[in-house]
Specification:
CATH architecture: Roll
Strand order of the largest sheet: 3-4-5
Number of domains: 1
Structural class: alpha+beta
Oligomer: single chain
C-alpha cells in the first residue's frame, strides 16, 4: 500500500497570517495556484482565491488592511504522511475536496491532489482516485 508521503508534493508555496490581500493574490499569480496554506510556527489554515474575493474584498474598502488570518479557513481537512492513499481518497471523497494538506504534529509536510493519486501507477490507487474524483460534485455555473 502506498502512503501520502510517497506521492505528496513537498515543495508547497505558503503565506504568513499577516500577509495582506495584495501579497496573497500576487503570490498565487506568480506560482499559478488557487490557494495558499497559512503558516506561522505551525499550519494555521488556507486562503483560496475565492476567499480573497468573497471574504477579503467584500470585508473592507481598504483591502490593504485585510490580512490572511482574517479570511483564512481554519478548520481544514488534513491527512498525515503515513496515511494510506486509499484512506486519503475516501476522506477526500467524503468531504468533497480535491486537495488534501498533509500535516504531522501541526507542521505542513506537503499536499496531495487526486491527480497525484492517479499518477502513482498502482491500479488500486488509480481506481480510488478515479472513484473519488467522480463522486466530488462539480460546481454548477
Amino acid at each position: 500500500m502506498s502512503t501520502l508521503q510517497e506521492i505528496m508534493t513537498e515543495d508547497v508555496v505558503t503565506a504568513k497570517p499577516n500577509d495582506d490581500l495584495l501579497t496573497l493574490a500576487k503570490e498565487m499569480e506568480r506560482n499559478d495556484v488557487g490557494f495558499l496554506p497559512i503558516l506561522d510556527d505551525k499550519f494555521l489554515g488556507v486562503v483560496t482565491d475565492r476567499d480573497i474575493v468573497v471574504k477579503g474584498l467584500a470585508k473592507d474598502s481598504d483591502y490593504s488592511n485585510v490580512e490572511a488570518q482574517q479570511i483564512m479557513t481554519e478548520k481544514v481537512v488534513t491527512g498525515y504522511s503515513n496515511m494510506e492513499v486509499e484512506e486519503a481518497s475516501r476522506l477526500m471523497q467524503s468531504h468533497q475536496i480535491s486537495r488534501l494538506m498533509v500535516v504531522d504534529n501541526d507542521q505542513l509536510k506537503g499536499i496531495v491532489s487526486l491527480g497525484d493519486m492517479a499518477i502513482t501507477g498502482k491500479d488500486r490507487t488509480e481506481k480510488a482516485a478515479e472513484d473519488a474524483l467522480n463522486k466530488i460534485k462539480k460546481p454548477s455555473h
